[in-house]
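JOB MANIFEST
job_type = single_chain_structure
chain_count = 1
residues = 296
[input]
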Amino acid sequence: MSDEGAEMSDDGAEVSEDGAEVSHDGAGVGEESRPAFDLEAYLQRVGLSGRPTIAEVHRAHGLAIPFENLDPHRGLPVSLAPEDLERKLVAERRGGYCFEQNMLLKSALEALGAEVEMYLARVRYGGGPAIRPRSHLVLRAELDGESWHADVGFGLGSPLEPLPWGPGEEHEIAHWRYRVVQDGAELVLQCLEDGTWADLYGFVPEPVYAVDVETASWFVCTHPRSPFVTGLIIASQDADGTRLALSDWSGLELRQRTPQASTVTPLQRSEVPALLAERFDLPGFGLGADERLVRA
């Protein structure tokens, strides 16, 4: 939102030309600024009802909604507007990447009464010494005196359940072991792989505004060298912790992983649409003339 034409109200709040209060998180705070979040539809999407706990919502979301970058891969910018996230991930039963996944989770947890803060993280997994941009979104959710590290959007290995906030002991979740450690100013999420603790991502625990999240998401989904623009990644996991990923980042392949084993199946591009429908519940895609995915 532009500040041009904004004024100050009697109580010192900034207001736009139509009288709506301007929030520093990038959205008006009046009811007219956005539609109410449809909690019932979201819970139905993830297979829940009633008033589930944060852990129940986190787990159900992680099992029901796949990670996917099909829109950036097709050259389509991603919208983080709440109504667009509900339409795409809930009504249309699509998936999304970290910003979409965790912003939708944020709306759901807030609708259940939680207070949620946002943090931007640098992915460390599989990287070398080069410093990567802050291209991953992490949430801190507080409810009933408990504070949780919530993240359903790390496609290569999100914990199915939230972790207690901050550095602490190890936690086994769906047979995978996780922990959060302190590394200088950063909190780092680690996962035990082949007997070694692997860094997934690190972040400075300072909350960011929605405009910061929008900027990072725009970079990820539009920059010509972003792996989410140049490559394809779709991922999911089941209740036993088996991870399934379809990717062309190191050759087109379908990879299945558990804490004990990994299998890799090379693919032909023509096999991808059927795999999206059958293995990731993402029907309706075909191949265009350039062999890029298109809506069928």
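[summary]
Residues 39-295 form a domain with the Arylamine N-acetyltransferase fold fold (CATH 3.30.2140.20).
Helices lie at 39-46, 54-64, 70-73, 82-91, 98-111, 210-222, 227-230, 272-280.
exit_status = 0
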